[in-house]
Batch of 4 targets.
Target 1
Amino acid sequence: MTTQQLVLSLVLATMVFSVALELRLQDFRRVATMPRAVVAGLIPQFILLPVGTWLATLVLDLPPNVEAAMILVAACPGGSLSNYLTHFGRGNTALSVTVSCVAALMALVLTPFNFSWMVASNPATAGWLRELDIDPSGIWFSLLVLLALPMVAGMAVSQQWPKLSERWRKPLGNFSLVALIAFIVAGLISQRQLLTMGLLPMLLIVIVHNASGLTFGYLTSQAMRISVGDRRAVMLEGGMQNSGLALGIIAVQFNSDLGMVIIASLWGIWHIVSGLACALWWRRSPVLNPEMEPPHV
């Protein structure tokens, strides 16, 4: 592992650890109190966006590494940033936190499962992986290091030393978020010779891909007939994939393949733009649900 890969892995592990510092058992118990809304938040993340992405890669004639990156991002769970933007957009923050918690646990199984069968059933990506001699099951190791271990550690600290975790949570969260953004920007600057008009097609792919996630979230919430506050949370959970986790997996398992890094980096920037745009729009027409629990951020 290179120094760059190690630094990124530490940043991502710190981000997951900081989020886990605020998790409580009651966050998981909320699943029983709002099952339909939680299911609505999980369907776009683990079914609609991954399958829709896989079908798109079968139709589109894109470079194999770009298609693999799209599948990987779609297979990742939502990121913690969706919790903050849901709160800012006056959506149901408790639902957003609950969906994020459940999705993080499910991702330990579903992310490698979805990625493995999708790249294997796409002739272009399957052949590309064989050429690189990469075993998709190696993603299990990345998820263990980048997601499972820091999450368990954060929840353990939160349980044993709640006051300490409260003091650490915000500084660590802010630091890791700024560090991740800085890492993405630095990576793009280091490859600035690629930042030409030729990059616009990849940006367009990311914009359409992200819009698909938001749309799937909206359509699912409409079909499940949940409240407006819940709908906002589900939309952001569907459209704000953890591209940072995808970057970490790309660094560890794919030797920072340039095409994959560009897709995941553009995702990391654009989903902040689209998520913030949604939250700002919603703040102009707030619809508060009196049954919503107090924000847990």
Target 2
Amino acid sequence: MKTIIHWFRRDLRVSDNVALSEAAKRAETVIPLFIFEDAFRTGPDVGAARLAFLLQSVESLRKNLAELGHTLVVRCGKSEEILPKFARQVGAQAVFANKRYEPYTQRRDERITQALLDVGVGFELFKDAVVWEENEILNLSGKPYTVFTPYSKAWKAKPIPAPKARIQNLKFKIQNFPCDPLPQSADECGHPLTQTIPAGGERAALELLRKFMAGPVYDYGTARNFPALDGGSNLSPHLRAGTIGIRTILAELKKAREKAAPAQVASCDVFLNELIWREFYAQVLHNFPHVTKGAFRPEYDALKWSDNQEHFAAWCEGRTGYPIVDAAMRCLNATGTMHNRLRMIVAMFLTKDLLIHWQWGERYFMKQLVDGDMAANNGGWQWSAGTGTDAAPYFRIFNPVSQAEKFDAGGNFVRQWIPELKDFPDDLIHQPWENPLMLSKSKYAPRVVLHEEQRGQCLAMFKAVKGS
């Protein structure tokens, strides 16, 4: 083809980018385009941290393309209106983009396909964000997996494709296309940023990957559970924004695993499993789209959840009286990030101690998280609530004190985020109510509920539905 528009979406990078590579192969000229959608300003789950990270990443992409001699064209508005108009303006025969998997984006892509067809322009979508799509790994009955372990075994049995090469010789039509001004901050979009977020962009992502694979990956199996340690890869915001390719991560993981000592191989495999969980939840979202509106197991839509607004506000603000829960929520509110172990603890506390609907927490996370991803967020919340894909879910109830004593034994993480408790000794830091006088002087919040009582109520709530 003579001219192809590459529409950047959640693939804000010039390396390991499937649609961009295909466009470079098949067109005489390629026009890189980014559309700042109206939904970025007004969508129901728009979060300031995620929006700010996106803007950083687009600016990084613009600079990377400029170094290669290319200009990123920016438009603001609705993609289904902008794309046909821009395609006619530049004489493009096709628009290439990488696939999105959320139900609302797929509905939008159907509308865009028709809008482009109406002006004689093709619309091609490519697999990029995942290694295996929703119908590429099926069970022996030809149906999608609903349990992780057999899915992961089938996933690992397939060969992993190599990363796409970094674009070097992207042929670009030298023409002064006008660009719309991109917002400089989330504040300009009506979403004031109050969090200190990690750096966005492809270079930042590749540097994080390099550092992680140079050493921390070998301790990941154990270190990832301790929130006071920086034991994770910190790549999840970049995977969500597409500032790094999944094939790039897997290729570097393979190299690291080949150099690992026997005792370190297991940690590499644990990290691989976490990447597979991401794809598992993506295919669950596609194949079972009802999870966006209710429980994966529909019978659990009948659960009688609490609507206690004061309890929910205490959870959101980090003042439930349970230090590990409150420290995690304060960290989220300040940084837009939360350690994976802590996500499970706070989600289970909301649903199984406060007995509040998992969807309340799901929405709050999407507002706050810099790496908020619909599929992973929904899957994680339903797993914790006991309404999801897990085989024996509802009676798994974390004790916030024992979890804290196991994974933050010295209270380092709690003291970092709850200064009221800085003077408490290690044996009281996770249950300060054991010293009422000291607790009163600290001005730390009293417990909103008693875990030992709520556990029984939670089990009764689930049993009432299971027995009906």
Target 3
Amino acid sequence: MGKAQKLKEQRKLEKITETTEKKAKKRKIEIIVVVVVLVLVLGTVAFFYLNRIHKEKIIMENLVSATIETTKGNIELQLDRNAAPKTVDNFVKLAKERFYDGTTFHRVVKDFVIQGGDPLSKDNDPTNDGTGGPGYLFADEINPKSIGVPDETIQQLEAAGYKYDYSLTSLPNKVGVIAMANAGPDTNGSQFFIITTQDQPNLNGRHTVFGNVTNGMDVVRQIEQGDIINKVVINN
């Protein structure tokens, strides 16, 4: 083989080597890109999954199980601090203090509500039933926009003295909810009602809903005026 031929072969070999190295480098870059993309995708998925789990944990931690034990049977409740934290805490406090023990459902309106929680319902004077409370009043916890109250209605209610917290996610006044009875804006105390057979959208924006019945709606619908609340038990 002559000198020219050897040089030609050498250049050919160098070209093959260079091409091989370029392919190897390109392949390496492609692998790195794939790995980076996979890490980003998996990281994003993990972030949103853990964030969702965290939010669900917070929601679950803010749910309180309670039981109203009555002469007709038990009414199981799930109270929601996410919707009305101060209202739930007030109900839990009063229940643990046995405030509700021996009170009655002093107001029952067919196909509307059963209402209880008045300490004066324990005495022998029915004329004062519905006027009692724990000795203090506290503010409403309502976001009317989150439950679809029209802007015009919101303006009318605000003009009537209602003040709203638009950071909350409120619950609407539907069948099976427990809500605070009141005598107008920011007059919550101890009295509550449970809606029995028909949704009551006309109460949205006026009453703080703080939970719902999870078991015992048959008991709710059997309640008559004067039926006794033996006690309210907080289960967790």
Target 4
Amino acid sequence: MSPRGKKTPRGTKIVFISPKNIISDFLRHRLTDPRARAEDSRTEEFNGGSTNFSLNPTIGSVSCITSVTVDSVEQTKWKHYYIDPQNQDVIFYSNTAAGTDNVDITYKQGTSNWIYPDKPKVSLSRISFPRMNVLVIGGTGGRLGQFDSNVESVLHFQVDVWSKENQPQTIDSIIYEGDKLVEYFAYEVTKAFRAHVEELHPALYDYTLVGTPRDMPFNQEMQCFHKIIEFELKGIDVSEGESN
């Protein structure tokens, strides 16, 4: 997608930014995994003078970006820079840092994760849970003017929360298990959007919760308790990519 709604020149390399990856990055940042699979924080320091900074995690891979500063000035994700999760790059929209500036990038890292832009497989073992996935289950779009104008889309998202039987987790000295555990995280998702939704702008905006977190039947195939959260967000040119 194109977070800032700009047209891409011909002949440039395109990095597709999936709306599901944007939401996954947001939730990994704002929620804490009770099993700490990717909660290790690492900061890398770079010299300025570039728009592309490749990260080198010491444990597994990058989970999410939590902070980017240029000479101690906080930069805004999706406004000043975007993320190429496949290549683990942070890419600025313009060369905002001089060659003598310090660019500090802080991120979470780990050998596995717990929030993904796809559904869990039946074959996953118990250590892969609790787990969440992000889906786009619908949406509409319309041009903001004439035939060559940007397209504004309304995306309908679904976040699924999954937990195995007999898998208690202690959170803030309280033990949650089964249906109580998925309910706890479902409301943590809605709380994260309520408190920090501005972090998605300008990539996504106008958050609307579609009802309250919804109970689902116990999933016999997955042997999991299950709850879903549905919400809508708007975005500009979500079918396009960013030039790199």
